[in-house]
Fold this protein.
Amino acid sequence: MVNPMHAALGWIVSLALASTASATALVEHRRKKRRRKWQVGPLHLEMGTQDGIVKEEKLVQTGLQVLEEKRWKPLTGKRVGWITNHTGVFADLKHGVDVAQASGRVNIVAVFGPEHGFRGAAQAGAAEGFLRDARTGIPVYDIYQKSGKLLRDLFLQTDVQVLVIDLQDVGSRFYTYIWTMYDCLVAAAGMKRSPTIMVLDRPNPINGDVVQGPLLMSQHATFVGRKPISLRHGMTIGELARLFNGEFVAEEAGRGALLDVVQMKGWERSMEFEATGLSWVPPSPNIPSVDAARAYVGFCLLEGTNCSEGRGTTLPFQMVGAPWIDGGLTVALRGEISRGVLHSVRFRESYFVPTFSKCAGSLCCGVQVYLEENSDPLRVALATIIAMKEMYPAGFQWQYTEAYYWFDCLTGNSRIREAIDSGASVDELVALWQDDLVWFNAMRAKYLLY
């Protein structure tokens, strides 16, 4: 006679085995249908597809990767200085300086760190100062906001023959890395024994097609803009180096620098960063994501006002507001979408307390900005500033310091601010820079590499 306890146990075990088999089959089915297995190698990704067939998808190869493929030969036997930071990495996220030094083929005698420092530890407007790198033992010099004789003296002191520049730009004129590069080009060109400047190219993360915004006028030149390029330039850092050297360096140094740009492989102008297959390394603490980089090209302009641009929050340049703003701002901006003034953007009413920077410790009301495909962050930011100024005249102010408006330094001229003060619409603001773009695009075209 069958023991009831044994029968029950057998039934439970059978059920468990059947359930396990079903679960295994389900998991395997989902694997085949949905598998996205990423294997990052030096040259490519392998990606599982919807039908389970694995195919190879090429990565964009940065200038750093291309230089390593040459076994560092252009640097062999030279005293090399490396102008870089934490973004100067391979696809596997190993740092270029670490790999080059470990190869035994490159003699790196100095590293030069821009804003935020070589390893990226410093906040906005700061650097790391002189140090000896803990990993490599290489001396690291701070070159943030240094130019002219200060840079020339550093290059002479270290006796560099080649200066490698490997920095990830974000596609906006007021991001400081491109002006560190410009100052290095001028300094090197002005030296009796000029070192070669070798720029390792990297993608423009917000694509290389779109060119927008006003030109910088000379009276508004600062470290967030030295020369007349458009606010959104649509160029890679290597292309900018060629433009700077071809158009502006000789004016200051008497001759152009010895420039070599190591081009990328596989990059196309229409690519957003996600299409490159590369991992995003935040180039600065307040650009933690590609979405932040896209928003930055427009919402950095809020730095020229007394409104918070989201520094001190987890969503810098995507969450903006002030203590004197209320929910009416969200309603007004959604109305601009309904009227067709804005498109490809959504707004969420948001409340936040910045932990540092403007409005630190104060409860702010404003909007979280959701930029969608084909959005125009510069237009959205200008519409937001117009709404803030019109709706909250008692609270809104332009930042005014040392006889200039910071907003003018960011836009590159006073016309945009003055037009906003006069009640101009977004379309009227955009019309102000169209003639500028004709001139800039004609100049820009001579230096494009892709």
Observations:
- Residues 132 and 138 are 6 Å apart (CA to CA).
- The chain has a mean pLDDT of 88.
